[in-house]
Every structure is written in C-alpha cells, then in structure tokens.
Prior knowledge:
It comes from Neisseria canis. Residues 287-323 are annotated as: Disordered. This is ParB/Sulfiredoxin domain-containing protein. InterPro entries: ParB/Sulfiredoxin_sf. With 478 residues, the chain is of the alpha+beta class. It has three domains: 3-133, no CATH class; 148-278, no CATH class; 339-476, no CATH class. The chain has 19 helices and ten strands. It has a five-stranded mixed beta sheet with strand order 1-5-3-4-2. Strand 7 and strand 8 (276-278) form a beta hairpin. It is globular. The model is unreliable at 135-142 and 280-321 (pLDDT under 50).
Amino acid sequence: xxxxxxxxxxxxxxxxxxxxxxxxxxxxxxxxxxxxxxxxxxxxxxxxxxxxxxxxxxxxxxxxxxxxxxxxxxxxxxxxxxxxxxxxxxxxxxxxxxxxxxxxxxxxxxxxxxxxxxxxxxxxxxxxxxxxxxxxxxxxxxxxxxxxxxxxxxxxxxxxxxxxxxxxxxxxxxxxxxxxxxxxxxxxxxxxxxxxxxxxxxxxxxxxxxxxxxxxxxxxxxxxxxxxxxxxxxxxxxxxxxxxxxxxxxxxxxxxxxxxxxxxxxxxxxxxxxxxxxxxxxxxxxxxxxxxxxxxxxxxxxxxxxxxxxxxxxxxxxxxxxxxxxxxxxxxxxxxxxxxxxxxxxxxxxxxxxxxxxxxxxxxxxxxxxxxxxxxxxxxxxxxxxxxxxxxxxxxxxxxxxxxxxxxxxxxxxxxxxxxxxxxxxxxxxxxxxxxxxxxxxxxxxxxxxxxxxxxxxxxxxxxxxxxxxxxxxxxxx
Length: 478
C-alpha cells in the first residue's frame, strides 16, 4: 500500500468496474444504479443523522492514470456515492433529488472527506477485497455482495450459466431476488451435469454466460419454474446436496409430471435476448447417463419424452463457431443511394469490429434498420397496412419500429415472396414480439439505446443481425 489519509470527496470517482454492477462508463449512470439497487438512500440518511462515517471502515483507492489527484474507489463505492449526493444533490436523478435535499437540510453535519488507503494496482487490492466481501456470514454494518456480484468479482466461470438462468427467472417473475441470490450455487450444481442441461434443452456449457436453448422459451420457463420449486422439496433431492445421479434422474420426475420440453427446434434461442441462431445437428448419439458413446451405434436406455416414450438422443447442438467469432457484422454488399444510410451501412461493414465494439455495432444496426424502413415507406406511395392481433395499423414514419418492420416485411412478402418467404416472415415476428416481453432481436437493439443496465456480447449482436439480414437485404433489393 502506498499511503493512508483523508481524501476530499471531489477527488474520488466511483469505480466503473465495481462487482456490484456490470461495467458502466459514466459517473451519473453508476450513481443512478446504486440508488436504485444498493440502498444508497438509507446509507445517506444514516450518515446525515450521525454527521460522520464509521471510523472503523476505511476506503480503498487506485490512482486514475493521467489524472493526478483523482482516484478510483475500489472499496467504499456505496459510501462515496452517498457522500457525493449529500454534498451535491444535483448529482441524483430527478426522481431522487428532493430526497437528498431534505437529508441535507436536516443533517447534523455533512462529511466532505473520506479516510482511505491507496493501492498500487487492482491486484494488490483484490486480496483485501476478497477477505472483506467474500464471506457472506460476516460484514455486519456492510451490505454484502450478492452471489451474483461475487461471481463477477471472483470470475467464477462455473457460476456463469446459473447467474444467467436466474436472471431469466427473475425477469419472468418465477422467483424473487433474495431467493435468486441464495440458490446460485445450487442451480450451478444442477447445470454442471451435461445430462441435466440436456433435460432443460440447454446446449451451451456450464461456464458459458450466454445460455442457448433448442426448445421453446415458454417450455423452458415452465420446466425451470418446476425445478426452482422442487429445490425446496427434500424428497426429490435436487437441492444443494444433490448427487450427479439425483440430477440425472430428475429427468424422469419431470417426465412423470409432464413438464419436460416437448418441442426440439432447428435453431437455438438466447434465453435473455430471445435472439435466434441457426444450428447444425450432429449424427453422433449421446449415451444414456452413465454410459459411453461409440461412433453412431445405438445406445441402450435412451431418454424418454414427456409421455414416457423412449427416444434416441442426439449430440448436443452447437451454434456454428465461424459467425460467433466474426469481426465484421456485415459480410454482403447493398446498393444504397441515400448518403447517410449508405455511410451507416459502410461503417458497419468496413470499420466497426463487432468483437471489440458490440455496443456501437448494435446501436448502428438499429439505426440502419430504422432509416432503411423510413426510406422504404417514403418511396412506396401505396398505403402499407399491418394487421396485429386483430388490429390494423397504417404504417408511416411515426409508427413504432416494430410496426414498421412487420408492416413492411408483410408488404414485401405479399409483393414478392422470393424476397421474404413465409418462414422468414415468421422468424421476423419472433424477433419483434410485443413490448410486454424482453425477447427478440428488436428488444435487444432497443435496450441498447434505452436500458443502461442491459449487457450484450458480440454473439448477441451477430445473432440479431443475422436474423434481420433477409429483411435488410429485401429493403434494398433493386
């Protein structure tokens, strides 16, 4: 450690790499997130009433490269956030500003300094952070990191799948946040077993944070809800003390209940984004749990379907790796005359590396789609009408993007089914579901622009683009 002393609050920057949240680039974004998710109001109230921070808890800092006198807060982000808001309530989102102004008006005293240790680098700090936050049984007076947050800090890849699955369960209202935090390791244990993943229709590995399934999302939600309820039933042995045999045998329990997914798809679905990827099936059989596979020989004791009927199992389906690792999002040419739209297309095609800049690529992809839709509408004199759920919508420039895409796609399909066939139109409908769900490529692109806590990878963007590709090409067909 370099030094320990008091630092003025204005010298301190909230850490963009804090395990309490995903990477965030701006201080205002971090403040908004901490207020919403990490009990900052309660902490600020306590500080305002006492007029001081606890003398037992020092902060941990790291010098900001290229900015003398500025420091990243490695330990104490909640306290620093509370102090910043008490010293300047204008930093709070509009909805919370008055709350902090009232605290300031009634405060005994507002501290402006924070006693901290300065570390030479993140690795030096990591050992101390681990001992401080890694034990969930201790830390009285601190808000411990959740299992999800600890998984981020310790980079526990074995929990990556469980974290994603629980995020899906939270979004769908299957469980609450407190329970999700408690059962991360239990869920991780279940899906560490390949046969258990196959039971749920999961085709990705246990350490993969992007969870792909080859069954319908609705069926996956049903079987997941059943499993999360069964964890609490000691007679089923699928909780924290389950054995490999218990986890494999759980398939038969689900089959008896009629909860097994019934539909095997010819594509995969990302459970968080709903994006669809084409898949290639293998012809190598997978053994019954506990046996081994040799070539293409039949396997005794194959799995059973929901009705209890024996069925051969196939090799777990994987997404073709070539596109997942693609550097360029667009690998085709289009004749686009409007200068602005052509510039956006060429930037995506020639300049952006989607592996390095997935957020920029996603944002430009959304812009390309919307501008292309507007150009199509302006250049078709006839009225474009879209029928959705018994309602008819006239499609124009002011229509929601979902209505534009589906209305134009239907118009093209009716005019020339060689450009967008029935299967492609159905796929577009899957990519553009109603707003009540977060599934689909369109919602992924929307969340990039409007949801500060939404995280993506290059794989998500590539899958979204590939699903919209026939539509984009049809828009600019000459």
